[in-house]
Backbone:
């Protein structure tokens, strides 16, 4: 079988044309978080998904990152073993020098993660080692809210790096700029591949989605029915703590999982079905697929070995209340879940008033400190 390596997709390797000199400067990007409707759970090297997924890009939950760069005076040279198991080689390369600040405070734990990310992408953006970097980042949502900032954070950083590439090579076509940004973001955090563009993004090859790829996210290529215009997402913060099991561990538990094969087939089928629902405006099918996907994701966690549960009692209370309200009123309200206890409540803009009243009177009491975030579908990352 053909082995995909990080270098798959040669179009993404930076080629210097030596036409531009870039001494110092800074770029700022604001990248959104996203919420998957059909979930990605299970990956292979390097950050390639076992099944395609589709997400709504969010609007109010975002990361804003400024990347300052200055030509390095004395870049250090280091040797190391590089590549995956079938592709090991020793490279001599420079080490990047960088610092990260979150809301003005140095974040050493982020530096380890980003250091690894920069190493991973270094073959694709070789210019990066010629600079000293300072990364200043800010999340619009509280750091401890239990909302993952890795998708928006990695997407914002990837876009800043792409702006450096564009400054060095202004002829890079816009389409390639965004594709490569998504490709790089994916290598930081899989779902970050879906945080570059909006409103709906597919990541992972699917037979019915033209140009879809395991390597990067693409915008959903069809016209979406007006029922989904400005779709609302109220995020109920049931548990504001750190995740007990990281998504990396969870993805890895899909290796040898007894239901993995069927699950990956099901995600492909659900993507076909949701694609039809999005085009036709079929809210009932949409609700059915989205809730089933959320519960299947958590079912995979409960049936892996070791097994684990990320939902909390209040997650279940909220789900039951939503079902009861939907049965009584026929409102087009549904929930989805990430890899955590928080609940995303999704509904059409047209039904905003009644559903907001219901959320405030019946659901907020299940949130930690009654905290929640009102969000809606967004339009992708922006340069500031
Ligand atoms: O991007 P990661 O590795 O944090 O994985 C995200 C997985 C889910 O959020 C649970 C599902 C998804 O498709 O976003």
Residues:
């Amino acid at each position: 079988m053909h082995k995909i390596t990080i270098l798959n997709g040669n179009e993404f390797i930076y080629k210097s044309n030596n036409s531009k000199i870039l001494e110092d400067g800074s770029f700022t990007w604001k990248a959104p978080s996203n919420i998957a409707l059909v979930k990605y759970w299970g990956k292979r090297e390097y950050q390639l998904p076992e099944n395609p997924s589709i997400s709504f890009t969010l609007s109010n939950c975002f990361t804003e990152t400024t990347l300052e760069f200055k030509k390095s005076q004395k870049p250090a040279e280091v040797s190391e073993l590089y590549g995956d198991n079938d592709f090991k080689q020793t490279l001599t390369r420079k080490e990047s020098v960088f610092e990260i600040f979150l809301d003005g405070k140095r974040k050493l734990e982020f530096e380890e993660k980003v250091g690894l990310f920069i190493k991973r992408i270094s073959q694709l953006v070789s210019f990066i080692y010629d600079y000293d970097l300072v990364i200043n980042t800010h999340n619009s949502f509280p750091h401890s809210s239990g909302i993952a900032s890795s998708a928006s954070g990695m997407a914002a950083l990837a876009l800043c790096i792409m702006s450096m590439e564009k400054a060095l090579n202004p002829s890079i076509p816009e389409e390639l700029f965004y594709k490569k940004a998504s490709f790089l973001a994916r290598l930081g955090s899989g779902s970050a591949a879906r945080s570059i563009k909006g409103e709906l993004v597919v990541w992972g090859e699917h037979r019915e989605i033209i140009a879809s790829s395991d390597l990067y996210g693409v915008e959903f290529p069809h016209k979406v029915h007006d029922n989904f215009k400005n779709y609302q997402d109220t995020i109920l913060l049931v548990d504001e703590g750190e995740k007990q099991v990281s998504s990396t561990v969870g993805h890895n538990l899909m290796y040898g999982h007894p239901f993995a094969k069927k699950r990956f087939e099901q995600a492909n089928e659900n993507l076909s079905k949701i694609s039809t629902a999005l085009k036709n405006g079929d809210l009932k099918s949409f609700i059915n697929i989205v809730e089933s996907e959320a519960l299947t994701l958590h079912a995979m966690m409960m049936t892996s070995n070791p097994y684990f549960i990320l939902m909390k009692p209040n997650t279940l209370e909220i789900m039951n209340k939503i079902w009861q309200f939907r049965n009584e009123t026929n409102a087009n309200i549904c929930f989805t879940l990430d890899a955590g206890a928080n609940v995303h409540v999704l509904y059409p803009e047209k039904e905003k008033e009644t559903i907001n009243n219901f959320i405030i009177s019946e659901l907020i009491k299940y949130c930690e400190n009654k905290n929640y975030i009102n969000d809606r579908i967004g339009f992708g990352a922006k340069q500031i």
